[in-house]
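Researcher: Last one for today. Full complex below.
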Amino acid sequence: MFSKFGYFARETATSLRRNLLMTIAGVLTVTVSLFLFGGVLLLSTMVDHGVARWQGDVDMQIYMQPDATDSQIEDVRLALEQLTQGDLAEVASFIFLDKAAAFEEFKELFANQPQLISSLSGPEKLPTSFKIVPKDAQVTEELRLSFEGRPGIRNVLTPDSAVRFLISLRSNVRLLFFAIAAVLLASSLFLIVNTIRLAIFARRREIQVMKLVGATNWFIRIPFMLEGLVEGVLGALLAFFGIIGLQKVLSSQVADANDLFSAFYVTTSDALSIGWSVLALGAVIGMVGSAIGLRRFLEV
Amino acid sequence: MIRLESVSKTYKGSVSALRDVSVDIAKGEFVFLVGPSGSGKSTFLRLLLREELPDEGRILVAGRDVNKLAHWKIPYVRRNMGCVFQDFKLLPNKNVYENVAFALQVIGRPNHVIESQVPQVLDLVGLAKKSEHKPDELSGGEQQRVSIARAFVNRPLILLADEPTGNLDPATSVGIMRLLDRINRTGTTIVMATHDEGIVNAMRRRVIELDRGAVMRDQERGVYGIGS
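Model: Here's the assembly. Have a good evening.
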């Protein structure tokens, strides 16, 4: 058994060295495409965090005074209830967030600023609010005007046009980057397929002899599979470190920036989880690439 | 040991390579396959190795129907058969020892088996002193001995030889035939396709003559051609 492992390791290393330039090309393409892929994920995680802060994941929100009475809150609820009724309803749905729920949300939004959370000893000082999903984005401004100034209401937040623009931009830019990453991933796959085919071609005499003396197909395939795997994982490993580095750079820039951009944070654990999926993807690309490369050549 | 029952094989768009061939070869026999080029000798050997499937008929090797074999079992059947070719098929970047050891390595034999078997078989073929040489440092006859050593190192039941003396001069060929004869006397069945009239006539073994894919003659202690 041990001699087999030694054999596979030797054969794989020899083959990687023999096609050194192709190996480097394969590894680097995997690196670039996976880095781009991971970078897009990292950036969109950042934007998600920022948008979550600004938008609060709802289209509009009515904040009550922290000392609003129960009857004042009940009045607003009844008014909203009526707006959900009938053919001319302007509100699709709404929920009421009590003080405890508001505190939970606060902790989530400011997860990267623990000192802020601890400075707020409990939920008592937070205002209660209504989260509202209007039927139509056009009516948010109208709704704001009709609620603002009522007793017990502190303010009404509607999504800013800039935020709306950012959200639509985010999905488009993300799509574009993913498309580029997909093209690069495909080309790295083809490069690995090609490397494996060259390796098979370089060793066709050996393969012929192996078949004649009765080596099993798996025995013949394993060194090539390993070769593809090594290329994929090596490329992914470089991309992994690149993504960790990118996170460090982005974080330090955000920390220096003003309040507005501090919402666009990304944590090391975000980068790590993206990094692990990039590593897994690299391994998959390597295996699939060599499987495709092997398919045509190794029929008995 | 080997049995062909009404085997036919036609390649795409050409004449038939084998036509209704039935042959029975017992364990320990030494059989010459003779006939002109294109008579079906190589196809005969390729079918035994299960490199190809016949269009019709059954082929039994060591009691197994090789055509009904599951794909993954084919390598295990080939381990019972050694192969020797006209062009030796040695690996140029490995030395003599490594070329022979390779055949055992790739079927997963442990190192201690390799270390005991390879010197033994190199001794048998008379190349113990040249085990460090690369194939291009050897004469044609020596290279063919290496390839025979590689075919025999796993002690197969059957040795298939396709024109093993085709590239060698007559004197060297005699040496190769002595070696094959010695291997045959250990109980190994040998099937050898050849053009070499002198060898066939000198050895006086069973001769199966093929012509355009059909068996023309199957004769114990035969000669190359009638009237030769």
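Chain A touches chain B at residues 1, 3-4, 7, 205-206, 208-217, 219-220, 300 (CB under 8 Å). The CA atoms of residues 27 and 231 of chain A lie 5 Å apart.
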